[in-house]
Structure to design on (402 residues):
């Protein structure tokens, strides 16, 4: 015996969500059907609407239901700085950290030739066109500190170097509040090589 | 800064799912919008359909999109046994354990006067009517071994006793494969009081 076909299909559909296995899917389906049908109905409607309407910002490629996102249209940002990130989630993390007041460009991934993901797939033609427009003095390459993120940063650096913009990359080092004992060797040796003068006052 | 209004609404809507907090909701929304729009669209459609069409079986009250569920219509079940459970998930657990071949009755909850959940809310009038039809010799009260489940079992027992059916309750005791050291005191003393003769062969 199992649940009815439609309930089983609901459980199966819920498994598209990341980190949701069969047991969690069952718990979610039961919760929605037994205790929160209104919430479930709302979720179905919003999900459908978001998938239909949310696209990429024409200017920075972040996720938005507008032509151009709020951050790109904001008059209070510094047009001379452009921060390149792999995902909207990375962009949000940088915004929440505070301090950066420039613009963004979202790749939605990184170069991955084995998966057939080339420069156009992550919008690098559009990025280059944006730099060619002029007005940007520094491009901060904030792709992830992973092999793929590094490779993507190097590719972009090579592509943009003819345009004469300053290129930078986020600093590597030990994370704040971490304990050296638990920092991986790669990070630790990077932090050693990048050590900074210290004034003990 | 945050995501666009529609993306934020999607994240908020995903939080109706049990165990999904803000971080998980963000991860789910990003996954659906960035990597699996087809799966998300399917989820939205199936969720809407399930919420509209899945109701209670007219006979046993389990979740089903049919008038009467497959288990109630099956000719291969024993009509003289009726097992009363709190939820469809409990029913499935008993079915998966195997061995029981009778029918079910699903309460969708337990008596909870403080929350305003009385006998009619968990279908006890319908249960009594079903017993009154005759043909059932034993009712197995498989409500949860919790305070509320016990109270509900006692209430049902009192309600059904005039009908002259045998009433039973699942055995209490130490779980198979468990270690006594980790069994709680209440369960252990129940298991002691309910100890069974043992033939050492």
């Amino acid at each position: 015996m199992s649940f009815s076909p439609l309930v089983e299909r609901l459980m199966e559909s819920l498994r598209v969500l990341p980190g949701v296995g069969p047991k969690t899917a069952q718990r979610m389906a039961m919760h929605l059907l037994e205790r929160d049908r209104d919430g479930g109905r709302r979720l179905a409607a919003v999900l459908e609407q978001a998938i239909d309407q949310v696209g990429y910002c024409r200017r920075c490629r972040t996720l938005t239901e507008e032509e151009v996102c709020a951050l790109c249209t904001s008059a209070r940002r510094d047009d001379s700085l452009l921060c390149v990130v792999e995902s909207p989630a990375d962009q949000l993390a940088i915004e929440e950290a505070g301090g950066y007041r420039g613009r963004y460009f979202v790749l939605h991934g990184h170069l991955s030739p084995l998966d057939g993901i080339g420069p156009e797939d992550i919008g690098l033609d559009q990025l280059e066109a944006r730099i060619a427009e002029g007005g940007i003095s520094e491009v901060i390459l904030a792709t992830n500190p992973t092999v793929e993120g590094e490779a993507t940063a190097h590719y972009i650096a090579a592509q943009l170097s003819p345009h004469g913009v300053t290129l930078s990359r986020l600093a590597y080092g030990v994370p704040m509040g971490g304990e050296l004992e638990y920092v991986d060797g790669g990070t630790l040796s990077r932090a050693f090589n990048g050590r900074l003068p210290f004034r003990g006052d």
